[in-house]
Amino acid sequence: MNHHTSELAQRLLSFNTINPPGDEAACMAFFAGWLEAQGFEVTLSSFGGDRVNMIARIAGRAEGDPLAFTGHLDTVPLGNQAWQHDPFGTTIEGDRLYGRGASDMKAAIAAFAVACVTHQAVIREGTGVVLLITGGEETGCDGAKALIATGELPAVGALIVGEPTANYPVIGHKGALWLRCETRGKTAHGAMPELGINAIYLAAEALGKIRHFEPGEPHPLMKKPTINVGRIQGGLNINSVPDRTQFDVDIRTAPNLHHATIRQDLSTVLGESVVVSTLVDLPAVLSAEENKWIESVYQHCQPLHAEPLTAKIVPYFTDASLLLPAIGNPPCIILGPGEPAMAHQTDEYCLLSRLNEAEMLYGELILDWQKA
């Protein structure tokens, strides 16, 4: 492996970009400087405080749309368990590079950045590359939303999302619809509850209905949509009738389902005592297997896997949900060196051997694209 890749990954890991609050500014500034020094044109845009996105380009001379890579620099918190390894990227043990964000997904960003630099002569003769680097993916793609709002996204021919797949090409992922449900009652003294309307009881009835709610038909690849109530809060003190509760519902969907319809159906089932509002609305992503470019990606990935590759999706969402419609809905592959099982875990690591493979793989995909 180009040792620059593991070094760059370690440098990116050394910045604390835990979200919340995110604070990608310092990490993004370092990375922007690194890319500029290697010949990229870089545009940074802030979306409040120390929250930053970046578009980095190497323009090509040939006619046609560039190849795009995307990745996010924010990470999830460290969690409650103690780490045995430094979460900020100083530890390499054997084949493992440890750190929060190693698999999800700073190592991938290092791999595709170095691959672009390695092949930049060919890129300049071809149609170019674009890196879309976001802050704030982990909390519902806030960074991607802000990047799209700048109106500066170029048209793109294909998108590679570096999320952790252990270098297995993934053609799609589920959608996420996060809803907040609120029940409103009427407060009263706990000694005279008959004078009030208990919002917790209203919520309990609503929750009973949600447990039996079917968001829609199964999808051949993504199976049944799922629903989970992940948070509830209500009431102020033991001796009052609570007049308000809130609970949050996480629904994971497939391309055959429309979020507006699901939301409407759920509202109807829950009835008038529940007010439903949308927190996150990210559509499912699915590329056509028979797309020529997707087929060529499979061919490049196949030698890295013993079994024949099959159509795969992942349950987690990615920035592709929002980016794809904004860049002209090109074919998209989710492909990264990270270990899917390591995302969000204590003592998260990425395998250096996979990082090496990914850098070579990204390089092959870049060369293919520029020479097409």
Q: What's the quick description here?
A:
This protein has 372 residues and is an alpha/beta fold. The protein is built from 10 helices and 16 strands. It has helices at residues 3-14, 25-37, 102-118, 120-125, 142-149, 199-211, 259-270, 292-301, 320-326, 352-371, and strands at 41-46, 52-59, 67-72, 92-93, 96-98, 128-134, 158-161, 172-173, 175-184, 226-234, 244-253, 274-282, 285-286, 313-314, 332-334, 349-351.
Shape: globular
Number of strands: 16
- Number of helical stretches of at least 4 residues: 10
Could you name the ranges where pLDDT drops below 50 across 5 or more consecutive residues?
none
Using only CA atoms, what is the Rg?
A: 23 Å
Mean pLDDT: 97
What is the strand content? 15-25%
Approximate helicity band: 25-40%
How many strands, which pairing sense, and closed or not: the largest β-sheet? 6 strands, mixed
Within the largest sheet, what's the order of strands? 1-2-6-3-7-15
Instruction: Give the N-to-C terminal Cα separation.
Output: 26 Å
What do you see in this structure?
The protein is of the alpha/beta class and 372 residues long. The protein is 32% helix and 23% strand. The protein contains ten helices and 16 strands. It has helices at residues 3-14, 25-37, 102-118, 120-125, 142-149, 199-211, 259-270, 292-301, 320-326, 352-371, and strands at 41-46, 52-59, 67-72, 92-93, 96-98, 128-134, 158-161, 172-173, 175-184, 226-234, 244-253, 274-282, 285-286, 313-314, 332-334, 349-351. It has a six-stranded mixed β-sheet with strand order 1-2-6-3-7-15, sandwiched between helices. A four-stranded antiparallel β-sheet has the order 10-11-9-12. The longest helix is centred in the C-terminal third of the chain and has 20 residues, at 352-371. The radius of gyration is 23 Å and the shape is globular. The mean pLDDT is 97.
